[in-house]
Amino acid sequence: MTARVALVSGAGRGIGRAIALALTAQGHKVAVADIREPEAAETVAEIEKIGGTGLVVPVDITDTDAVAQAVLQTQDELGPIEILVNNAGWDELVPFVDTDEAFWDKILDINFKGMLRLTHAVLPGMLEAEWGRIVNTGSDAGRVGSSLESVYAGAKGAVIAFTKTIAREAARKGITANTVCPGPTDTPLLKGIVDSADDGSKVINAMTRAVPMKRLAQPHEIAAAVAFFASEEAGFITGQTLSVSGGLTMA
Ligand SMILES: NC(=O)c1ccc[n+]([C@@H]2O[C@H](COP(=O)([O-])OP(=O)(O)OC[C@H]3O[C@@H](n4cnc5c(N)ncnc54)[C@H](O)[C@@H]3O)[C@@H](O)[C@H]2O)c1
Q1: pLDDT at 206
Q2: What's the pLDDT tens digit per position in 14-59?
Q3: pLDDT attached to residue 212
Q4: Which of 16, 163, 222, 249 is packed most tightly, with the most Cβ within 10 A?
Q5: Into how many domains does the chain fold?
Q6: Torsions phi, psi of 140, nearest 5?
């Protein structure tokens, strides 16, 4: 298996940390890009514990200059980025009528434009190298909608459509782009959402009941799908949207 250089956004905790560890297990070096530096350092410590190479890359993906700097740091210290996982995301449960434009901007800036910034900074190098894997973390909310997550669902729908378009534009250059859509997953984000929303636990219980397998996903289950799309073997699979959600979304 060829060892590659990967950058995973939001790899300080939750699903992103599990992705960083899964890519490490495949032999890749991983830039752990996150706004939370201490958590990113914990992920790197876990990578090193299993014999891998990780790099703490502090970055706020809503800041274009910081994203450019993060990509340069990774290239300088690990080499050209061959695998990009746009995973960082954020949400809060709010009825649409109670949201305002500042909230819309925040959701879009993190969940959609953050991915645009990183992809814009990394894709030219992949095109030049004629090899690349882009894997974006979407959400089942972006495929079928999710009550109290209207703007987030819209942003994740945009992630899916953008990914398909990049897949088309880069298809003849050895580059694939795919989206993995988690269903409700046991992470600090989900816990935060439950704690902050009125009736948060009721909402999560309802979400869990809707899952045919009747449980939350564990982060490593999402990471396995991401690692597959990032692999050499998945080289003829592009523009796809894969739900990892215990059967919640079957389409
Ligand atoms: N947990 C779920 O139920 C669930 C379901 C569907 C989709 N997702 C998606 O999975 C991805 C990971 O979510 P998670 O549940 O692991 O969340 P999490 O909050 O546990 O982890 C997300 C990480 O992203 C980082 N991050 C947030 N904003 C950032 C920014 N501006 N710049 C850099 N890093 C930033 C956080 O610091 C954190 O370490 C997100 O895209 C989320 O939308 C999660």
Answers
A1: 86
A2: 999 999 999 999 999 999 999 999 999 999 999 999 999 999 999 9
A3: 97
A4: 16
A5: 1
A6: -60, -25
Residue 191 lies in a domain: no
How far apart are the CA of 16 and the centre of ligand 1, in A?
A: 7
Q: Which residues of the chain have pLDDT under 70?
A: none
Question: Ligand 1 pocket, 35 CB below 6 A?
Answer: yes
What's the CA-to-centroid distance between 15 and ligand 1, angstroms? 7
pLDDT in tens, 159-171: 999 999 999 999 9
Q: Give DSSP secondary structure letters for 127-178.
A: HHHT-EEEEEE--THHHH--TT-HHHHHHHHHHHHHHHHHHHHHGGGTEEEE
| Range 116-119 contact pairs with CB under 8 angstroms and sequence separation of 24 or more | 116/162, 117/61, 117/62, 117/64, 117/67, 118/7, 118/9, 118/33, 118/61, 118/67, 118/71, 118/84, 118/86, 119/84, 119/86, 119/166
Q: Is residue 180 part of a domain?
A: yes
Q: Could you tell me which of 158, 157, 85, 84 has the C-alpha nearest to residue 124?
A: 84
34 as an active site residue: the answer is no
- Report if residue 212 sits inside a domain: no
CATH number for 82: 3.40.50.720
Residue 192 covered by a domain: no
Query: How far apart are the C-alpha atoms of 81 and 116, rounded to whole Å?
Result: 16
pTM for the whole thing? 0.98
- Domain span at residue 110 reads 5-185+220-242
